[in-house]
Amino acid sequence: MTLWLTIAAVAALSFACKALGPAVLGGRTPPPRAQAVIALAAPALLAGFIVVSVLGPRWTSWDPTMIA
What is the dihedral of CA 9, 14, 18, 24, to 10 degrees? Predict the structure, then answer.
């Protein structure tokens, strides 16, 4: 039962987060600086996910100088 309550809570939170943007912004467009941050957020997150996936959970101890 706890699992289903957790799933329902996560679904409700996800819905609320997705509804927050249009509710706050309405029909307005964000300023150019905010648009630039939003545009660069996805590639930065993707790069982070790739690093963690490739190097594993101990990626923080990786030393790039060891390549040479």
Answer: 50
- At residue 49, the 3 state secondary structure works out as helix
Q: What angle do CA 64, 65, 66 make, to 5 degrees?
A: 90
Distances (CA, A) of 28 to 15, 25, 37, 38: 21, 6, 17, 15
pLDDT tens, residue by residue, 6-33: 999 999 999 998 888 888 878 888 889 9
Model-level pTM? Answer: 0.45
Contact 55, 62 (CB under 8 A): yes
Is 16 within 8 Å of 8 (Cβ atoms)?
no
